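Whiteboard transcription, Tuesday session. T.W. wrote the structure tokens on the left side:
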């Protein structure tokens, strides 16, 4: 299982996968090994399209072996047991690797904050499998609702409770509010009985979305109220327990309850356990346990180790945990690994925040570009789709022609300007 002086990448999310792909593109001279517990990459921003049927699993949830075919990168599907920074060693369930350079890109895990029953009685929404399970659960509930004669049972079956009104909760609620009435209508049910409820402890939506502008909040809130099934917002509601088909929360010093056959958790994340267990002192960690990195995305005490995505935190330049940031960090890490292999000094990562993209239902999105202006509705949707389609891994996921069609259709025909989508995500060819 050993390779000579390999570069080992732990985690195949945006940072890990795109580090590997860029290294391959740059003809990196050392062996590259990408390790992930799962068989498939997850394009998380497009999970909503997978759930709704707008995109297929092959597009949103492709296999690493297919993505890395012909790249020279070795993919290992295995569970990481431990990381020894001193010995430069990674142990897996079967075997392990001694590395020359290491890239930590393990992402994060769902954080349940000690809430009673939250993990046991709510569904996550972070992977393709999660989306499949949620879709199956929803269709089963709609089927049962169409057959029962008990009005209370039907009401619970047709109610979806979503915990957390950040970006994930908003996008999921907006998507379900459009697709569930259609699904239920196909069963001759009454779409007006569908109930989508967002529960948020803060007093506003998108409270943790990297300082979302008020205009984006207003756009999102208006869109939620104008879906096929209106979304109910319970703000200032602190969830205290989740039981089978029931959410208990506190609001205005009173205990309240929501009866829902489907409860989805989008309320937050926490640091990956393997990152928590690393021998890195607290002074080189963020408050949440993320690893402090230098401007070159290296660990201060271990320059042979790079970190990006949800594993890393820059004390001088905090960045939101978005796909556009993770992608750019992967590119920057690959650039610096290439530089080191050529005897050159690594350079600071140049991460550009180019705005926020928010799915607000079928065929509708909001694009807050460079925090200067906002495009919403169908045009916002085309910008969001074009941006993400152009980020899909290549060569197997060659959606370049599709994204170029979006760019040409929106901008060349309507404004005569250059490619805004390309500038949104940066050059990555």
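and on the right, the sequence the group agreed on:
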């Amino acid at each position: 299982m050993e390779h000579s002086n390999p570069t080992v990448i732990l985690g195949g999310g945006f940072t890990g996968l795109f580090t590997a792909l860029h290294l391959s593109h740059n003809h990196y001279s050392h062996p590259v090994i990408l390790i992930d517990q799962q068989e498939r990459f997850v394009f998380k921003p497009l999970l909503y399209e997978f759930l709704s049927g707008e995109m297929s699993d092959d597009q949103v949830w492709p296999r690493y072996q297919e993505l890395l075919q012909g790249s020279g990168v070795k993919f290992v599907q295995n569970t990481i047991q431990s990381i020894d920074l001193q010995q430069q060693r990674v142990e897996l369930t079967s075997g392990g690797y001694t590395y020359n350079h290491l890239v930590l890109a393990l992402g994060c895990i769902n954080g349940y904050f000690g809430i009673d029953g939250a993990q046991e009685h709510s569904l996550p929404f972070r992977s393709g499998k999660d989306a499949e399970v949620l879709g199956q659960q929803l269709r089963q509930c709609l089927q049962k609702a169409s057959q029962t004669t008990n009005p209370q049972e039907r009401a619970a079956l047709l109610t979806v409770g979503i915990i957390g009104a950040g970006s994930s909760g908003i996008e999921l609620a907006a998507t379900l509010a459009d697709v569930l009435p259609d699904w239920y209508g196909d069963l001759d049910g009454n779409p007006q009985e569908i109930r989508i409820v967002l529960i948020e402890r803060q007093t506003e939506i998108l409270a943790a979305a990297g300082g979302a502008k008020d205009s984006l909040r207003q756009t999102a809130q208006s869109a939620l109220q104008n879906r096929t099934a209106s979304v109910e917002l319970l703000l200032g509601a602190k969830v205290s327990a989740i039981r089978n088909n029931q959410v208990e929360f506190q609001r205005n010093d009173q205990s309240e309850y929501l009866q829902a056959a489907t409860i989805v958790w989008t309320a937050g994340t926490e640091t990956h356990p393997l990152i928590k267990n690393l021998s890195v002192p607290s002074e080189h960690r963020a408050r949440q346990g993320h690893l402090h990195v230098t401007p070159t995305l290296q660990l201060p005490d271990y320059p042979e180790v790079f970190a990006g995505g949800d594993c890393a935190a820059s004390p001088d330049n905090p960045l939101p945990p978005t796909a556009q940031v993770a992608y750019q960090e992967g590119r920057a890490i690959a650039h610096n690994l290439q530089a080191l292999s050529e005897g050159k000094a690594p350079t600071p990562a140049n991460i550009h925040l180019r705005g926020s993209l928010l799915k607000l239902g079928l065929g509708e999105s909001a694009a807050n570009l460079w925090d200067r202006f906002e495009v919403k509705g169908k045009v916002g949707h085309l910008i969001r789709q074009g941006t993400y389609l152009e980020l899909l891994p290549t060569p197997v996921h060659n959606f370049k022609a599709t994204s170029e069609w979006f760019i040409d259709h929106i901008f060349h025909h309507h404004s005569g300007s250059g490619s805004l989508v390309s500038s949104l995500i940066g050059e990555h060819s």
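Someone added at the bottom: Residues 398-429 have pLDDT under 50 and may be disordered.
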